Amino acid sequence: MKEQILSTLDDTHVWACAFAKTLHAPATVALHGDLGAGKSEIARTIIQTLRGENTVVPSPTFTIVQSYDEISHFDLYRIIDKSELTEIGLQHAIEKDITLIEWPEIASDILPVGTIHIYLENYDSGRKLIIK
Questions:
Q1: How many domains does the chain have?
Q2: CATH number for the domain harbouring residue 16
Q3: pLDDT, block means (10 residues), the chain with 132 residues
Q4: With contact defined as beta carbons under 8 Å apart, do 83 and 90 qualify?
Q5: What phi, psi does 61 have (nearest 5°)?
Q6: Domain span at 98
């Protein structure tokens, strides 16, 4: 387990940029945390680091998944039934892409061994990031 305090948004970007450079497909990253904890910001920074800083990265809250040439970004917040995970192509993405998953709890039984779990918690004026 590794912990880090991210005091500012810049700290979050620096950390996520460095982390992104360690990822190679296939890799699964599960992003845990409350609303506003920074999950989307970390995912956005990872994608822009790997696909170019001008890459437009909208939140997949309504679309559920956004794809960026071997990177898949899922937001499972609105998924109610596990059968929907097949319909949205989660297993396929896990097998071939760098897969970033916000709200991964509903998919816990299909996440592969080696999934990187990142937990974000509010901490003072910033965030505490815990990697398991």
A1: 1
A2: 3.40.50.300
A3: 90 97 98 93 97 92 92 96 94 97 96 97 89 93
A4: no
A5: -55, -40
A6: 2-131
